[in-house]
Amino acid sequence: MTLSDPLEPESVAPAVADLDTIVSLSKRRGFVFPSSEIYGGINAVWDYGPLGVELKNNVKRAWWRSMVQLRDDIVGLDAGILMHPQVWVTSGHVGSFSDPLVECGTCHRRFRLDELPGAEGLTAAELRDEGIVERLGLRCPVDDGPLSAPRRFNLMFQTHMGPVQDEASIVYLRPETAQGSYVDFKSVLGASRKKIPFGIVQIGKSFRNEISPGNFVFRMREFEQMEMQYFVRPGEPAAAAFEEWLPRRRAWYEAYGVDPGRLRLREHAPDELAHYAKKAVDIEYRFPFGWKELEGVHNRGDFDLSRHSEATGESLDYFDPATEERFIPWIVETAAGADRAAFTFLIDAYREEEVRGETRVSLALHPELAPYKVAVLPLLKKRAEIVELCHRIKADLQREVMAVYDDTAAIGKLYRRQDEIGTPWCVTVDVGSLEDGAVTIRDRDSMAQERVDAGRVRSIIVDRLAAARP
Ligand code: ATP
After folding, report:
1. So what's the pLDDT on residue 9?
2. Which residues sit opposite 232 in a β-bridge?
3. Which secondary-structure segment (H or E) carries 297?
4. Ligand 1 atom closest to Cα of 340?
5. Pocket of ligand 1 (CB under 6 A)
6. What gap in Å lies between CA 183 and CA 79, rounded to an integer?
7. Is the pTM of this model over 0.85?
8. Cα–chain center distance at 395
């Protein structure tokens, strides 16, 4: 496959120039807050507020719909965050799930070597080179102090299971969800009676003690993954499955509104490949801080099932009744992050435009992803009949979708508030509605308004949502 898009960050503008625009909108409107803020916060953990939890749940639902609901060959799983500690020895994480760390001799801050200015383009071999800091003359980006030689820093969080805290009771908080799908492969296969090719997906929390977290929810120490492991015949069929999944996953972001011009593919160089991978391509997004990985698609060969089989003595092979062959399946993995995806949709949806001399801010979120689908607003909150009709319409809508009533400002301001949180439709009840039973539906993006019968609002909204669904 030829990978397109040799674009440099400069040639494609981000949807939002300054990340602070999104951070402050998120905080102000209740998408994302710093965790434990009244205690001064805890680095690299973020909490999702009332709107953020809706957005992230919608992202997860959209992903599950495309990966499980619409497919006959993929099933779901929800494995534990804590697993047998040997799993992580077998998987290679205890030995090599690490990043190169350097420390400043003056301020003692620690940095990921490959994220230091001047070291971004280093190859995997160079990152392992003990003399690299000296050779490149790298200095601390904060106080220009001397930096140590790089050492490997393991990213797994450890804790203890049970009442005794010794070496034998160490367990790890999983750094990825994938291993659950490998160790449960036999059970899922037996219970689901799937035939190869088939997939197992999981959505769940993962934990990494990142050396330099940052850029808001882009890199956190506690985050959520959405991963699929697709089990296929070895060799060419695995390569073919890889070529199918890569564009399919890219198309998923586009179907939910991400500008195709701000997505690109980046293939890992041979010396950059993870220990398990035969081939890896990142789907990258043009974040305000550069092109960065949004999702990884990997051909993992038979590494995982073979290793777990050797370590446990359990056979993890597959018998194909059609060809009477027995083999260890290869795995094509699509590894996405729920937080990174939600963050991307949020950034990419951000719009600012001049409307009658004022700046209108809106989030052009796909209706499926928007926290609220409809806001029901009274034009005159002093008229009890108007408020009552609003509540009736809202209660009717709530049976199907997230709907909200708001009367805390004048109509213009109410519209602006809903635009800013991405609500696709507002329904306004006015004095005329009391006479003719008609209300106004206003569209977020075009701001067009239409009069419809109040009794039809629910079915109109449900139909529009269905029509928008990819
Ligand atoms: P990176 O190179 O950014 O550290 P990675 O290659 O280690 O990422 P994977 O192990 O492939 O990432 O994880 C799959 C997905 O999980 C990533 O594409 C990303 O969406 C998400 N993810 C990984 N680490 C984090 C993190 N620290 N915070 C938020 N999301 C993450």
Report:
1. 52
2. 330
3. strand 290-299
4. 20
5. 176, 208, 210, 219-220, 223, 225, 293, 295-296, 335-337, 339-340
6. 10
7. yes
8. 32
